[in-house]
Amino acid sequence: MFDLLAQTVLNACYSASYISLVAVGLVLIFGVMGIVNFAHGELFMVGAYVVVALYSNYDIPYVLVAAIGLVFVGCIGLLMERTMFRPLRDNPLGGLVASIGFLMILQALASITFGVRMAFVPPVTQDVIEFTDKIRLPLQRLYVILAAVGFLTALWLFLTRTRFGWALRASAQDPEAAALQGISITQTAKIAMFIGAALAGVAGVLTAPLISVNPHMGHSVIIAAFIVVIVGGVGSLEGAVVASIAYAFVHTFVTTFFDGVIADITGLLLMLLVLIVKPTGLFGTADRA
Amino acid sequence: MILIAVALVVLPHGLSFSQQEILVYLVINILLVVSYRLMTLTGEWSLGHVVIMGVGAYTSALLTKRLGFYVPVSMIMGALMAAFVAFLLSFPLFRMKGFYFLIGSFASAEIIRLLWKRFREPFGGPKGLKRIDGLPNIDIGPIHIDFFEPTAYYYFALIVVLVCLWVLWRIEKSLVGLTFHAVHWQDKLAQASGVDVRRYRTLAFVLASGFAGLSGALLAHYIGTINPNSFDVEVMVFVLTWAIVGGTSTFYGPILGCIVLTILNEIVLRELGFEQMRPLIYGAIMIVSILFMPDGLESLVKRALARWKSAPPPPNQPEEAKP
Lengths: 289, 323
Description:
The structure holds two protein chains of two kinds.
Chain A: H1 2-33, H2 40-56, H3 62-85, H4 92-114, E1 128-130, E2 136-138, H5 139-161, H6 163-173, H7 175-180, H8 185-207, H9 218-232, H10 237-257, H11 260-277
Antiparallel strand pairs in A: 1-2
Chain B: H1 2-10, H2 17-40, H3 49-67, H4 71-93, H5 98-118, H6 120-123, E1 138-140, E2 143-145, H7 150-173, H8 175-185, H9 187-192, H10 197-223, H11 233-246, H12 252-272, H13 278-292, H14 297-309
Antiparallel strand pairs in B: 1-2
Helix pairs in contact in B: 2-7, 2-10, 2-11, 2-12, 3-4, 3-5, 3-10, 4-10, 7-8, 7-10, 8-10, 11-12
């Protein structure tokens, strides 16, 4: 029993780490731009397909692939900002619809280029850390956890220690006041979009060797990310991280002891409960909705 | 008016079999999207409408399969069940507004959908329900109607949908409908004038869901198989785009959006042979239309009508709804 519990805890840590990367990006984009980016799960998918395109087919080192994936998906984010979200700044429903359109485009591109079936990704490393016979942590999963901690720390330092970060937080709090202080809204939107997209992309790159890569993989990730964002509080980065961990634990434990569909239902019920009892979420204060 | 009526009657005869099938779906989808608009009149955008439609489909299918209900009766039961489920959902959901309502409606709908997936008894699990009875044939003397024929079912669905559209139209033009508008645009003022805002939101939600349930039942007895994926969020996205591309400030806007996009998606793109590219082009159309035509296709019609009458557009038309 102890083995099973410990193993489940490890699995939960792993899923918490990539969900938090996706969710934090979603929160950042929503906070700064006020737009619900439904295509965020597909940015995750694109990240995974960067691995398929470069790592499975050519012998490019994995670290380099990760860097390329980060920049590439970040640039897709910039493209979305420039072509869709900037012209639709005063139309929140418009931004949502446009992002759904973009989601369909990305899915179609992925299935045209790579086919609809699961893509093969060779494992980066076969090594496994064995604590005991039954408690095992594949090294690849440890990489995901470490990378998530690294990226989130970097983001936190960026937001709290640099001028750009201050500008970003200021325009998330009050766009008009920030604009009056000479902060360019377009500039902060670009930065937020790049970082948000890049985090989703990097999460896709990191998990690609561990999960099944297919054009529709973004679907379950975006649902998890939405649950996390609502539970943590819309617009709260700390909330998103804490809620990711909570959600991952609940989901992993329920999956282990019951089954996957029940776990999904539990997660959604949790979100509904938070929406009913405390719609601003556990950490939310500002409501921009 | 007569011209449209003749066109609707003649329409299926010039089409191929698969196009006739699409026509049946189109008629059903028009009911779905118009009922969706009734809900958006109060200013709330739901992401659960398609699952509510599925409630109607599942209920009607199960009643005929398990309990041997007569199909038209089970269809009405399906609609009532959908309305009832919406009534139950309204208690948690109408504690929320705007974006939170959007997400909340998605979550509760997804829970219902996952329950269908999880429980093989009675919902059939991921594979859903198969061999749902169709409408029984009509044999009265010389008249013989086989409802497996798309044309026959088209006429049946058309009549049902037209009656529903008429009812929906009357609702909107009634005092209740006017109150829906008031609840959307002047929520505080309506409340101050003694309107129970929440009750009217609930009423709009329940009515819209009932009609959605009926459209689901119509669909189930035509295609004969339904599964949880027939009602997933991707279908919801289509309904949302029909409404938004068409525009929601007029009664005909969503109908226009539904017809234009269905023709574009099913007929033009399919005939041109863009099978794999279809979602891509569809997505691009969504983005382009929201960028360059934020008030929907109906704004083009309005402008054309205004020019035709060479009169200024009607004053104080409510703008495109925004949550």
